[in-house]
Amino acid sequence: MFVQTIRRKFEGKESKVKVLVVICSLFVFSLLLFASTGEFFASGKRGWVKFFAQKGYVEVEGKGKLWVKTSNDSKAEIEGTYDSKEKDKGMDFYKNFQGKVVVKGLNFRVEFRGENIKFHATGKGKVAMQGDGTYKTDKGKEGKWGIDYRWAHTRF
């Protein structure tokens, strides 16, 4: 009986209801897409940083080995020098890299192993660090990198 009453009330208004449902769905999707973003900073004397981004921006500086994997929805800009560029397990590998890489977009990965590391990211993702350094997020989380083969992990 309740369903029949609702059906009579919205009879002839189905297209308006469908448009309203689509608009509400788009609003909720945009909230989910743009919500839960943060900012991450890390610096270290030496170590390994692995960053997995769902969306956002990352900037890494240092001297060492660099791996970058981008998707069709992301772009990497490399500034600096390196001895060679190879493919390593589906990622671009830069041997003896010294400089800065900036990656923007969706679904990308950046790994850096070396020294004098400076790392800044905004967006949504997760990071793992090992070595000698510190990190902090805009949400108040901070700490030291994992030492002795332990990894420090954070999401932002």
Question: How many β-strand runs?
Answer: 6
Helical fraction: 10-25%
What is the mean predicted local confidence, pLDDT? 82
Give the DSSP E fraction (strand runs of 2 or more residues): over 45%
Tell me, briefly, the overall form. Answer: globular
Number of helices: 2
* Low-confidence region ranges: 24-34
- Main β-sheet, in a few words? 6 strands, antiparallel
Tag the structure with descriptive keywords:
single chain, alpha+beta, 6-stranded antiparallel beta sheet
Give a brief rundown of this model.
By secondary structure, the chain is α+β, with helices and mostly antiparallel strands. 19% of the residues lie in helices and 63% in strands. Strands 1, 2, 3, 4, 5 and 6 form a six-stranded antiparallel β-sheet that branches.
In words, what does this structure look like?
The chain is α+β, with helices and mostly antiparallel strands and 156 residues long. It has two helices and six strands, in the order ααββββββ. It has helices at 2-9, 14-34; strands at 38-69, 74-81, 84-88, 91-137, 142-144, 152-155. Strands 1, 2, 3, 4, 5 and 6 form a six-stranded antiparallel beta sheet that branches. A hairpin with a 4-residue loop joins strand 4 and strand 5 (142-144). The radius of gyration is 22 Å and the shape is globular. The model is unreliable at 24-34 (pLDDT under 50).
